[in-house]
Design brief:
The protein has a two-stranded antiparallel sheet. It has one domain. The protein is mainly α and 93 residues long. Helix 1 packs across helix 5 and helix 3 packs antiparallel against helix 5.
Length: 93
């Protein structure tokens, strides 16, 4: 699988997973969505998964979930977030 096709697959799965996670977070207060402890947990999960999100491995699923959770949480910031050639904004969903 080429780097381009891996990115396309990641984009396709994130385009589904992130809006679903945004919907789950929508009714929570912004302080809970951007809670430093929750963000540190995402950071720890990403550190464990590293490139396994793209290449597969023991931590691939948890890493992907951390990526989509982190993007969804950042989408609640004013203006949303641009990542992997996509834009996510919780205020417009």
């Amino acid at each position: 699988m080429t780097e381009s096709s891996k990115l396309s697959l990641l984009q396709a799965t994130l385009s589904v997973a992130v809006p679903m996670r945004i919907a789950e977070l929508r009714d929570k207060p912004i302080e809970e969505i951007l809670d430093p402890e929750a963000l540190r947990s995402i950071q720890t999960r990403l550190a464990e998964a590293r490139e396994e999100v793209l290449y597969g491995g023991k931590y691939c699923a948890d890493g992907f979930n951390a990526v989509s959770d982190g993007i969804a949480r950042l989408a609640f910031l004013p203006g949303g977030i641009d990542v992997f050639g996509m834009h996510f904004d919780a205020s417009s969903q």
